Amino acid sequence: MRVAVFSAKPYDREFLEVANRAAGSPHRFEWIVAHLDSRSALQAAGAEAACLFVNDQADAAALATLQSQGTRLIALRCAGFNNVDLLAAAELGIAVGRVPSYAPEAVAEHAAALVLSLSRRMHRAYARVREGNFALDGLLGLDLHGRTVGIVGTGQIGLAFARIMAGFGCRILAHDPAPDSGAADRIGLSYAPLAAVFAEADILSLHCPLMPETRRLIDAEALARMKRGAMLINTSRGAMLDTQAVIAALKSGHLGHLGLDVYEEEAGLFFEDLSASVLQDDVFARLLTFPNVLITGHQGFFTRGAMQAIAETTIANLQAFVSGGQPLHPVALPAGGGIRGGTIEPSR
Ligand code: NAI
């Protein structure tokens, strides 16, 4: 099958080519650097499938162009499908497949890396030693052993993070509307109301999906409930934080450390090399000025194991579509109506 791969990076090419070869090279890829939109869709002329990532906009206009040129399948190489207009896809007869789960440990380990870097000030120590500055002032660390780690969302990633932090001797306090009592017993975590998790956590890490109830979950009120000097980690979705309130809490010293792998306005920043351009986002620029803030550009998923899993599942989706007309992991139109792109925000 001819597959147009949008937002194609060298690493996408590397892993998809290996997975395709392992399946006997049934697919021919066209690598399109641009994100999908209604104009770039023209570059996929003749491709039966379009393979998309998180910043590709499969809105009704882009889908109509793709369909008019022969595309019958959208193969997402991510779990989230909030960037696809599912109703338009269904109307146009385009099937949609995704990668529902891949290496949750990768994201959990990245969250743990943020905790360790911040707690021992690794980001500052690294720069200092390279400059020949071996002074310790300002590098005083935080012991993890015996601290309380608050986890919001105990799905695949939240539980993997809980296991890691329990290994450091932390007490784990979690909140989830659908608690997993079996996992709680195995890991030794306790569930508590959200207010108690906010109040007791020395380190608070977010692992729930972005939904109307979790948008701005960490606002000025939530921050005020947190312990003075607490650490906040967000590897889930940027819009779960009220970033202005977080900046105010950092300025006052109430929030002690902040580790982010996601940012609400990341679509215009992350995944690209902007080092030669002037940063236009003043809120993001302010975050970068704090010595106790560490930001990575949505790389939690970016490990060899996770990339292999994404590529293999994508090939499996393509194969199933060729043989049976449906991807292996289809995205169904929700009962009671369609999703216009951007109205729901499931996990990535
Ligand atoms: P999951 O679906 O396995 O778990 C999500 C958990 O959140 C579930 O247990 C659910 O009951 C819980 N939840 C739902 N509403 C909640 C609420 N209001 N309060 C507390 N908990 C709530 O999802 P998974 O795979 O663990 O992913 C979690 C999040 O991680 C994703 O939604 C995504 O935003 C983010 N993610 C980030 C990546 C990165 O590269 N930084 C990569 C993959 C996912």
TrEMBL record:
The molecular function terms in GO held by this entry are:
D-lactate dehydrogenase (NAD+) activity
Gene3D superfamilies in the record:
NAD(P)-binding Rossmann-like Domain
According to its UniProt record, this protein's enzyme class is oxidoreductase
Give UniProt keywords alphabetically. Answer: NAD, Oxidoreductase
What EC number(s) is this enzyme filed under?
1.1.1.28
- Where is each D-isomer specific 2-hydroxyacid dehydrogenase catalytic domain found? 3-331
Q: Which InterPro entries match?
A: D-isomer_2_OHA_DH_cat_dom (IPR006139), D-isomer_DH_CS (IPR029753), D-isomer_DH_CS1 (IPR029752), D-isomer_DH_NAD-bd (IPR006140), D-LDH-like (IPR058205), NAD(P)-bd_dom_sf (IPR036291)
Domain annotation D-isomer specific 2-hydroxyacid dehydrogenase NAD-binding: ranges: 113-300
Database matches in PANTHER family: 2-HYDROXYACID DEHYDROGENASE HOMOLOG 1-RELATED (PTHR43026)
Question: So what family is this one in?
Answer: Belongs to the D-isomer specific 2-hydroxyacid dehydrogenase family.
Record-given protein name = 2-hydroxyacid dehydrogenase
